[in-house]
């Protein structure tokens, strides 16, 4: 009988140590997640500015391309203008939505 009580005590002590160790391990995980969150959120301002700059360059290139087609009398000018305009609007809206979603 004494041996049975001793085994239960040792098993209970081992379980308590394991539970305590896992509780301490979770504290570092939360700190890591918080650090990753702050690191990712610090990249959003430069990333948003980069997307806006890409949108500006795409808009300028599209404007030159549409002007060239319009000057030459190409009947496909409106389709080209709509596609370039849509690409610029998509870049601006995508950057704004991503920023509002993640920050």
What does this structure look like?
93% of the residues lie in helices and 0% in strands. The protein has 103 residues and is mainly α. The protein has 2 domains: 1-41; 43-103. It starts with a helix and ends with a helix. The model has no long low-confidence stretch (mean pLDDT 81).
Major β-sheet annotation: none
Helix content: over 70%
Number of H- or I-type helical stretches: 3
Number of domains: 2
**In terms of structural class, how would the helical and strand content be classed?**
mainly alpha
The helix/strand series, from N terminus to C terminus, equals HHH
Number of strands: 0
Radius of gyration: 30 Å
Shape: rod-shaped
Termini separation (Å)?
A: 62 Å
The mean pLDDT is 81
Strand residue content: under 5%
| Regions with little confidence, pLDDT below 50 for 5+ residues | none
Brief overview:
This protein is an all-alpha fold and 103 residues long. It has two domains: 1-41; 43-103.
List keywords for this structure.
103 residues, 0% strand, single chain, mainly alpha, 2 domains
Q: How are the secondary structure elements laid out?
A:
Elements: H1 2-42, H2 44-72, H3 77-102
Helix pairs in contact: 2-3
InterPro entries: DUF4134
Pfam family, one: DUF4134
Transmembrane segments: 49-68, 80-102
